[in-house]
Protein 1
Amino acid sequence: MKWSYNLFLLITFNLIVTPVFSQINHRESMYYNIGTSGVLGGLGAIINKKPDMPLGKTFVKGFAKGMVGGFFIYESKNVSSLITKHDKLEYNWLAKTVNCLGTSMVENAATNRKLLAQLNFNIGFNRFEIYTAEKFKVKYKILPVSLLLTSYVALNHKFEIKKSFSTGEFIFSSNKLASTWGSSAYTLGTAVAIDEKSLNTNFIINHELIHVYQFYDFNPINTYLQKIDSKLEQNSSFFKFYNKYFYNDMLSTITQTSLYYIKGNSDLAYRKNFFENEARLFTE
């Protein structure tokens, strides 16, 4: 089984590292999304496995299911490009549906569930969990970190209700964004802020929506704390209440934010930033 681990490590390194250090194209973006999702699914499967589950087989199954989810995540960004192509924000609902299907598959892989056992649909900081494995049911939970980040943006910007309904994400605007941030738009967690002068420029909004998807990409990492959360829930009525109504998105937020800023904030670093290059790939 040792050879299989080495093979997976080699493939994973190639899939993830190659696009980061080169000019990104669609093939490299696909490799990145599939490879990263495979790793997240495989590692999560090991972390969350039961004692009687074989290590190698569990990793391989998690890795494979994660890669399937990664393909859907990549395709969701492809679908999102229709916003720019047809100049219609409403295409984001289709892209969002495909993205949620992909990230759900990776979460299921990371928790050793069947590929479609649980489907999670995100609208900003709102998470709808759809259970299909046994008895069909739907649960609503709040993403607390996303809620805090959205609240911060809301305090300083105007809520654009029409564009929010058109995209399924929380979109805000400001007439001081360009002068304050030095940019026509930015994304904080799942909240998108647009300068008023660029509010009707859909390819800019499209660019920021890709950043929202990149934020969702790392949601499966939150499952790595599942065993800890379960133990806390058993010993604390507070954590039992918390886990019932909230889905902890702290770990995914820290991971995605750290990876984004790891190259620094200079103009050169911005142009070489993989996340920015991927967003430009699907919107320009």
Note: The mean pLDDT is 88.
Protein 2
Amino acid sequence: MIFLPFIFFAYLLFQIIRKNGFDVSACMTSIYMVSSFASIVLSYQDHDYSYDNYSTIEITLLPTLIYCSTIGLCIYPFYKYNSNRRREFSPMRNAKLFDLITCAYIFVFFLLIIMFRTDLIFRFFYGNLDELRKMAYEGYLPNVVESYSGIVRFGATILTILGEGAYFMILFFFYSICFLNKGKFFNILILISSLSPILMGFLDIDRSRTVFWILLFALAFCLFRPYIRESQKAFLKTTLFVIGGLAVCYLILVTVSRFGERDEGASGGVLVYLGQPFINFCKIWDNVWIDRFFTQRFLPVTTYFLGGGNGGNTVDFIDKIFSATGVHVNVFFSFVGFFLVDMGHLAACVIPLVFFGISTRHVNRYIKRRVASLSSFIVLFALGIVIQCGIITYFYTSIPRVVAFWIFIFLSKLLYQPFKE
């Protein structure tokens, strides 16, 4: 069974490239194919890693089929859209709004640096990122926002909410270089503004935001690739080499700091991160049975305004599962695994179907229009995030990310202008 996901996603990728070329759906599929291959390698490593000896976990047929079919179904609408098909591009309704949004996010990025400069300097010069991470988990390194009070804390909270939405500025960067006559310096500033989540990730000693940024840059590139002119490729390569290189260096630094002194080493740590989603999904499916809906992470805003977390917080929920089953669920298990852990087996099957329906509805609408626009790309990007980042977990698990999602969906309506022949 361990070979089935790799065979499935490799065949799916082959068919997508044969018909569409390397489009958005191929980008998504390749991530799951690579992860599935890492699962095979990991399953043959007889080693006691932090949470498990993955070679001892039995992989059964049913969770394997659920994993492949639900993820494949969610990818299908993006395959149907075929982002490699060059469509007429509808102009924005309000170019000044575009400038206002980009300037606001550039301001947010530099304001985050100014506001949290002391915390950034402390973390940068501390040296041992693994120790800082343990301190954060154990409560000895407080959340940077919680260290403030009053109006300053309110301002810091607003900044972090806006900062989580900065992933969408990657789209604005590509739109600017493809369709607007902006200077290179301004375009670089737009891309820099998209780094706010990485900055906040550094404050939290968290690599996932950097991984998300890299994955979402690839997603945005695939959306805009048909519109990138040859003269712009050199600028893109240089910019990506510098900014992307810094992001990758940070990932390497944190990974080596965390795993370098362990038996498996940094390479073993990377293998665990890449290969564990499918194996963990199967183990949780066969061994953990959820008797209630835990919506605090799936519907964070709704749960917050209803005044609770279904009887406990996330840490208590995770601890309760471990004490009852002996299975660690504070791991990577894909977005489908997230639905499984928080809401049960039925939800793991039904919610991807709902997502498929929502995605199909929007994709069909954009196909019928026969044009593309920044507005449609914002919506496709917002939905594609679930799959692209879903190799790790479900993306929209925090209030800032959900608020950012709805802000940009609203902005997509303001930016949309019907195409005129």
Note: The mean pLDDT is 88.
